[in-house]
Design a protein that fits this description.
Elements: H1 2-22, E1 42-44, H2 49-52, H3 65-70, H4 84-101, H5 110-124, H6 126-135, H7 137-144, H8 148-154, H9 156-159, E2 166-169, H10 176-179, E3 190-194, H11 210-224, E4 231-237, H12 243-247, H13 261-278, E5 283-286, H14 291-301, E6 307-309, H15 310-329, E7 342-345, H16 349-365, H17 370-377, E8 380-384, E9 387-388, H18 407-412, H19 421-428, E10 432-435, H20 445-451, E11 460-463, H21 475-482, E12 487-490, E13 497-500, E14 503-505, E15 507-509, H22 516-526, H23 533-546, H24 549-553, H25 564-581, E16 587-588, E17 591-592, H26 593-597, H27 601-610, E18 620-622
Helix pairs in contact: 1-23, 4-5, 5-6, 6-11, 8-11, 11-22, 15-16, 15-23, 16-17, 19-20, 20-21, 22-25, 23-25, 25-27
Protein name: NAD-dependent malic enzyme, mitochondrial
């Protein structure tokens, strides 16, 4: 009975979400919301060629004759007025024709050619760009985001054509408070900021890391419906330790060594103060900061600003949703998650983030006591570049120390400090093998063969490192070596595996895009003062409950990217609801905190949907500035 009560205390919200996936709830009450992202006319202060050269307002051939007269562009466009649908069809036809022609020789990969064509559309017509992206999200998310965005960042100095976002550098110290007013938008809802120190698994790419911030914000717009005129990608250039970039005459960033220590913190502090002075309610997502700073900056700012770190908290949430999904796929009760043996390869910011989130969830299942928290620790084995982390190791990273195995434990398991991943898997026989190492092929044949002896009837393999070349193994390797009954989820997209006899090995994508857009949107619409652990937990549980029982039993534990708008709406609604329950919500625009608290679950979902921007051309009305 004690276990049951612990389970109910822990996951009452998760169980409720699972039940809601089975039985649709029809709300008898209705409430009208005025969408803030509707079709009201837009006032512009420019005409003629200026309006055609502005990607925020340019409609191209879709300008009506009335607008052409009003904006002084009659005669500047071909006479045939095209519909949005015609424009989309025309672009898609051109895209298919130009994909190969756009390549700059044999060294220009096919996916990069696609990115270049999409980027040109983004530069001239943002609304049409997001229309194409949303309607073809499954095909183009891997182009604007991982894995292609990694290649884009590596080549960004050569790809740069026109500025997008803002650049704050070590050379701008003392000037950031005035610089922030150079951005033309009076309102910014979402900033993604990076210092380029650890882009995906590619290392220090310096100023070229701006590409990851741009790609993330593309998904905030496409998935969460954040208005594209109110997003801002930011690069904080504090130098680079990449020798190749330091010597490259064409590199666009500061060619000096990275700042460190107090000098580094002073730059980040000045940036945070500047953006929150101009936009007090903005949400800042930290992205791809090296591990040595990721946790420190998160702890430094999270209690005072509306911010979160996607590598630490977003990855943790997505992985936690997958781990809970694996429990469901094994047909076990949710309380059994606290008994799962999990081997984690990688002890960077993402790996430690996953460990902390999973440990806290297990502890809640066991009663949320100090004893429960300590007991949960024993379910993890962490392997880094030096092997198994134990208390015998000198100079253990403080963030990894809580997960160092005790010496007596390792002796009982016939393991030792620095044991290889294969040795650990062979001795532990884990339920889950999770990779966040950024080492491609780390799950070797020897490691996967050891996993065949797992005590689980359905072991889970999560090679979550990005981009594709850094995945710890491929699905073909996993299914062929470990067996057909595994649960597979990777960070980058892979195709399903044909297992023969009509059976399919499902390749789930454990991608952060399932969570971070909803976390951002839910925080924005709730008006929450901070992004709390409870809000992040609510997002992860919502994602874990999204799949039906039938899907999960087939090994499908994450949804298709084609459903990203609906997933994001549900995650955002869960975040809003949790913010209300924690008394953090302060409301959004006309919906103040008192009105927000009156909404039931169906009304919260409606409120979220009504405030998601969609790519439609507004009527433009000129007003002299």
């Amino acid at each position: 009975m004690a276990n049951v009560s612990h389970q109910m205390r822990l996951s009452s919200t998760l169980l409720r979400r699972l039940q809601q996936r089975v039985t649709a709830v029809n709300s008898t009450s209705s409430r009208n919301f005025t969408t803030t992202e509707g079709h009201r006319p837009t006032i512009v202060h420019k005409r003629s060629l200026d309006i055609l050269h502005d990607p925020w307002f340019n409609k191209g051939t879709a300008f009506s004759f009335t607008e052409r007269d009003r904006l002084h562009i009659r005669g500047l466009l071909p006479p045939n007025v095209m519909s949005f649908e015609q424009q989309t069809a025309r672009f898609m036809a051109d895209l298919k024709r130009l994909e190969v022609q756009a390549r700059d020789g044999p060294s220009d990969p096919y996916v990069l050619a696609k990115w270049r064509i999409l980027n040109r559309l983004h530069d001239r017509n943002e609304t049409l760009y997001y229309k194409v992206l949303i309607e073809n999200i499954e095909e183009y998310a891997p182009i604007v985001y991982t894995p292609t965005v990694g290649l884009v960042c590596q080549k960004y100095s050569g790809l740069f054509r026109r500025p997008r976002g803002m650049y704050f550098s070590a050379a701008d110290r003392g000037e950031m408070m005035s610089m922030v007013y150079n951005w033309p938008a009076d309102q910014v809802d979402m900033i993604v900021v990076t210092d380029g120190s650890r882009i995906l698994g590619l290392g220090d790419l310096g100023v070229q890391g701006i590409g990851i911030a741009i790609g993330k914000l593309d998904l905030y717009v496409a998935a969460a419906g954040i208005n594209p005129q109110r997003v801002l990608p930011v690069m904080i250039d504090v130098g680079t330790d990449n020798e190749k970039l330091l010597k490259d005459p064409l590199y666009l960033g500061l060619q000096e060594r990275r700042l460190d220590g107090e000098e580094y913190l002073e730059v980040i502090d000045e940036f945070m103060e500047a953006v929150y002075t101009r936009w007090p309610h903005v949400i800042v997502q930290f992205e791809d900061f090296q591990s040595k700073w990721a946790f420190k900056l998160l702890q430094r700012y999270r209690n005072n600003y509306r911010m979160f770190n996607d590598d630490v908290q977003g990855t943790a949430g997505v992985a936690l949703a997958g781990l809970l999904g694996a429990v469901r796929a094994q047909g076990r009760p949710m309380i059994d998650f606290s008994k799962m043996k999990i081997v984690v390869a990688g002890a960077g910011s993402a790996g430690i983030g996953v460990l902390n989130a999973a440990r806290k969830t297990m502890a809640r299942m066991l009663g949320n006591t100090e004893i429960a928290f300590e007991s949960a620790r024993s379910q993890f084995w962490v392997v880094d570049a030096k092997g198994l982390i134990t208390e015998a190791r000198d100079n253990i990273d403080p963030d990894a120390r809580p997960f160092a195995r005790k010496i007596k434990e390792t002796e009982r398991q016939r393991l030792r400090e620095g044991a290889t991943l294969a040795e650990v898997v062979h001795q532990v026989k884990p339920d889950v093998l999770l990779g966040l190492s950024a080492v491609g092929g780390l799950f070797s044949k020897e490691v996967l063969e050891a996993l065949r002896h797992s005590t689980s009837t359905r072991p889970a393999i999560f090679p979550m490192s990005n981009p594709t070349r850094n995945a710890e193994c491929t699905p073909e390797e996993a299914f062929s070596i470990v067996g057909d009954n595994i649960i597979f989820a990777s960070g980058s997209p892979f195709k399903d595996v044909d297992l023969g006899n009509g059976h399919v090995g499902h390749c789930n994508q454990a991608n952060n895009m399932f969570l971070f857009p909803g976390i951002g949107l839910g925080t924005l619409l709730s008006g929450s003062r901070i992004v709390s652990d409870g809000m992040l937990q609510a997002a992860a549980e919502c994602l874990a409950a999204y799949m039906t029982e039938e899907d999960v039993l087939k090994g499908v534990i994450y949804p298709s990217i084609s459903r990203i708008r609906d997933i994001t709406k549900e995650v955002a609604a869960a975040v809003v609801k949790e913010a209300i329950e924690e008394d953090l919500a302060e409301g959004y625009r006309e919906m103040d905190s008192r009105e927000l608290r009156k909404l039931d679950e169906a009304q919260i979902s409606e409120f979220v949907e009504k405030n998601m921007w969609s790519p439609d051309y507004p009527t433009l009305v000129y007003k002299k500035d």
